[in-house]
Write a structure and sequence with these properties.
This protein is an alpha/beta fold. The chain is built from eight helices and ten strands.
Length: about 180
C-alpha cells in the first residue's frame, strides 16, 4: 500500500517470498529486473547471490531502495538465520545507500494497520519476539507491548534496552492461555 501511494502501478525488482510479490501484484505493481521504480527486499529463505548482485547494481544506479524490516536475524529451531536487515546491510555496504524500512518499527505500518482494522491504539497490543523492532514499534505507536521469549530476544537481552515492554511472556501459546483464562 505504501508503494502504491507513492507511485501507483509502478514496477519493482523484488527479493522476497510469495506473500510480498502477491501484495505488490494486488496493488497493480509489475515485477521487473529492468529499470524498476523500486528495489524491494523482504524475508526469504532462499537468498541468491545473483539476485543480491542485481539489487546491488540497481541500487547503485540510483533506484529507490525499500525493505520490509531491519531485523538482522530471525529464529529457527537450529539457531539464528540471516534476515532482511542482514541482506539490506550487505546491499547498503556495497552501494553506500540505506533502505527506507516500511515495516516495523516504522510507525507508518502500525497506523496503516490500525486504520485498516478500524482499531484504536489504546485497545491494541503489539506482540513480538524482538525488542529492537516489535516492542519499539508498539511503544512508538502508543500500543501495549508484549515480548514473547520464544524467539530472538531473551529476558537478559531485553534488559539492555532503555525501554520496557508492557508485558513479558514465555510464548504466544502462554499468552493465549492467559487471555482464555481472563475471559
Amino acid at each position: 500500500m505504501f508503494l502504491d501511494s507513492q507511485r501507483p502501478n509502478g514496477t519493482a525488482f523484488v527479493i522476497g517470498e510469495v506473500g510480498l510479490t502477491t501484495a505488490l501484484h494486488e496493488v497493480g505493481y509489475t515485477l521487473s529486473e529492468n529499470n524498476p521504480d523500486y528495489v524491494v527486499i523482504g524475508e526469504t529463505r532462499s537468498y541468491s547471490f545473483e539476485r543480491i548482485t542485481k539489487a546491488v547494481r540497481l541500487v547503485g544506479q540510483g533506484h529507490r531502495f525499500i525493505a520490509t524490516n531491519p531485523d538482522p536475524t530471525g529464529p529457527s529451531v537450529h539457531g539464528p538465520l540471516p534476515a532482511t536487515g542482514a541482506v539490506t546491510a550487505l546491499i547498503s555496504r556495497a552501494t553506500g545507500r540505506e533502505p527506507y524500512f516500511i515495516g516495523k518499527p516504522n510507525p507508518l505500518m502500525i497506523r496503516s494497520a490500525l486504520r485498516e482494522l478500524n482499531a484504536h491504539s489504546e485497545m491494541t497490543a503489539m506482540v513480538g519476539d524482538r525488542m529492537d523492532t516489535d516492542v519499539v514499534a508498539g511503544l512508538e505507536a502508543g500500543l501495549h507491548t508484549v515480548l514473547v521469549l520464544s524467539g530472538v530476544s531473551t529476558s537478559e537481552s531485553a534488559d539492555n534496552y532503555p525501554y520496557r515492554p508492557s508485558r513479558v511472556v514465555n510464548s504466544v501459546a502462554t499468552l493465549a492461555d492467559e487471555l482464555s483464562e481472563e475471559r
